[in-house]
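Researcher: Please predict.
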Amino acid sequence: MPAIILPMTREDILKRMEDVQSLPTLPPIVSKLNEMVNDQEVTASRLGKIIEKDQVLTAKLLKMVNSSFFGFPQRISTIPNALVLLGFNVIKTLIVTSSIFEVMQASDVKLFEHSLGCAAAAGIIARRRGIKNPEEVSTAGLIHDLGKIVMRAEFPEEYDRILAAARERRISVREVEEEIVGMGHGEIGGLLASRWNLPESLVLPVRFHHTPERAGDHKKIAAIVHFSDILVRAVGYGSGGDPWVPPLDHGAWERIKFGKREAEEILMELEEKLAELQNFTVDIS
């Protein structure tokens, strides 16, 4: 009889995450930017000049901000311009996560594609729903599966067991996570995003993208990310780790619902963006 393996406790997970070793470390520039952004006198130009001292990071950022999941009609050629158009929260998040997405692109290209697709869909829906900063919603879509990246990197044995159990039992990865790890990927991703001092408008949609009505003041953003995740899975772009389309949360649908004609328009717009993203890479080498 096989041994019964109990799930890790919440305390075990939190302790392991206190010193995440397998993910790329945060660039030193993040601490400097955090200090500067608290200065009310600081300008986008000054912040941009600090970032632009790192030429590799600058090239990665400009590549990401000019990609189809943000969808700006004109090319953004400087970091100060990107800061003005996207805001510090988005740029900081891209700085923090650009190296992680480079790793994910190499190790799990299907999850990378799924994340790009979710970002594109979230931006389309956010603009149609009049969200003040649709680029931040795109960014929430981009990092919504951050917890899966953490699990793959920090809990590789458990993650392999999760994938195997999901395949064998023909259920979603999410349904197995709590059994084996003791915590879902949404909560793990939210914990890491919070540890990186990302704003609640990103942390809560990441944490609650499967249960968006729990996202406090950011329920609408979480609802958009939730539906975008479902939509991108339904069209078959990339993979979230299993072939199943998650159930649609009724409360989330009530916040963003649209009719058949608008749904067709969203799908057409999304197909165009996904085609443009087909060969997108973070690597600039």
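Model: Residues 61 and 94 are 7 Å apart (CA to CA).
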